[in-house]
Amino acid sequence: MRNYKLAIVGATGLVGRTALKVLEEKNIPNIEYTLFCSSKSAGTKLEFMGKEYITKELVESSFDDGFDFAIFSAGAETSKHFAPIAASKGCIVIDNSSAFRMDDDVPLIVPEVNFQDIINHKNIIANPNCSTIQAVVVLKPLDDNFKIKRIVYSTYQAVSGAGKLGLQDLENGPKAKNFSHPIYDNCLPKIDVFLINRYTKEEMKMVNETRKILGHPNLPITSTCVRVPVSNCHGESINVEFEKSFTINEVTNILKKSQGIIVQDDIQNDIYPIASNSTGHDEVFVGRIRKDYSIKNGLNLWVVADNLRKGAATNAIQIIEKLIEENMI
Amino acid sequence: MRNYKLAIVGATGLVGRTALKVLEEKNIPNIEYTLFCSSKSAGTKLEFMGKEYITKELVESSFDDGFDFAIFSAGAETSKHFAPIAASKGCIVIDNSSAFRMDDDVPLIVPEVNFQDIINHKNIIANPNCSTIQAVVVLKPLDDNFKIKRIVYSTYQAVSGAGKLGLQDLENGPKAKNFSHPIYDNCLPKIDVFLINRYTKEEMKMVNETRKILGHPNLPITSTCVRVPVSNCHGESINVEFEKSFTINEVTNILKKSQGIIVQDDIQNDIYPIASNSTGHDEVFVGRIRKDYSIKNGLNLWVVADNLRKGAATNAIQIIEKLIEENMI
Predict the structure, then answer these.
(1) pLDDT digits (tens, 9 = 90+) for A298-325
(2) Considering only CB atoms, which chain A residues are within 8 Å of B221?
(3) Which residues form the domain of A107?
(4) Which of B227, B230, B154, B324 is nearest to A183 (CA)?
(5) For a tag site, which of A159, B77, B115, B301 has the least CB within 10 Å?
């Protein structure tokens, strides 16, 4: 069995640290790790895999060392500059930023959903936006069975999605202002920047990435993205209309049999997905499964997942695992 | 000018205390107040209108004193028992509970929206559910202009909607359990009890009360109601489809001209409705006004209001003011 060299870029950030945790848990054999970060954080000592790692500053020559894989979680600007350098040196980059997601020659991958799209990648593979990942994991098997006609998303997104500063703002209370307004005791209907069409970039990520991943470039989708004062795990109210009719039993059984999903929908016993039960898990949790009686073939779902794990680190690592498994490296 | 006698039933609860605050601010002339509460809280001293009031226990003979009005905010059971007694003695009851809202001979009133429905009331007038009130204030003028075809609600509801125990749970952190799960650091997709159709009672209140207030008994509406860790002011992501076409400018101008609404939609300057700016106000705040491009004549809105004020106390008091103003007593 061959050995692999994996670079973690942005190892000291929230997603980077979550990646280290997930890698420790998975303990994929025969991997040698190198931890990169910004010049500011270089030299940070991190306990990982039972030993001490010292983070290195990411520089252009970093990828001369012959890496097989890199997980980039250091923001779009770092990805734009360094991912093409890594790729040109034969390293397969799994990029957590939005830099390349909508590029035609960059596959946007959720392993349970569209791993087949990875063929012909050009060494850059994009990890979707956190809120999109958890939605498509649930929607894909339903689309396969009932054909989605339209989606209306309303999200309840945790502050960890905005990194350490997001968590700090929630902890610091009403005076903190890393967000445009205090997140403490508020829901903020703005995630990422506003675009000319009056949507936020986050809202359009959900629209465009869902279309790309499900392979329906013109699927009617709308989205309202809201930050909520919760530390970790995004919630989503998903309203979906299908071409074909269904029963709630059929939907529930399909979801139960699908990969990466845990159905929590025992309303008699107050069991439905909530953040505090989802945090630390790699699955997507779905509940409140019920007909939308306002339209033919309408369905409402409540979906929760750990945005740092399945929404970011876990998904990236699953892509690497699957590339190894399928002998695609 | 004649004098009026007004009973506040449930004066020591969150909505009751908010009613006292709103009444002090409005200082409606020629009103004499009596404050009622449960036997448990009877004798509580409350500073109100510059003097000390002592709350009285509500008993069946309480309404023998010839009240003109009563505001009931003591839960559905108290309303079911005492409101008919008050009404039979000539007192006009404005009932904040869900006890009578869907009764055919009980008008369900939001003054800006359907005050005309109040004629022929039989001394019980229902105050709608908090989350419904703020939605219909915004939807009514749009329905008048563009005719609503379908509504998809997703709510972000504050803990004050669950009374003092709700606020306590949020303050007490992860161990508190007045809700079915800790609200601290969680969004809970359950408000009120579950019904046989898998919706919560809160979700069906939004569906049924919106239909009744807008006067469209079969309007297609679906709803997902979620409690969020915010102390006061409900948020709502409202997706609405109209019969007629519209421009965003038209929608914005109509909302700006409508009663009881403040448009906050200057995204360049990060101005949109948030709880901390809406608390203590009687208006309904609306922003994030944008086309839903996934459907013909689709619109997305973000609506925030103080659920204790416009969602409960203020709306009830506005009904009384208007009855006096229109010489309907």
Answers:
(1) 999 999 999 999 999 999 999 999 999 9
(2) 294
(3) 4-128+312-325
(4) B230
(5) B77
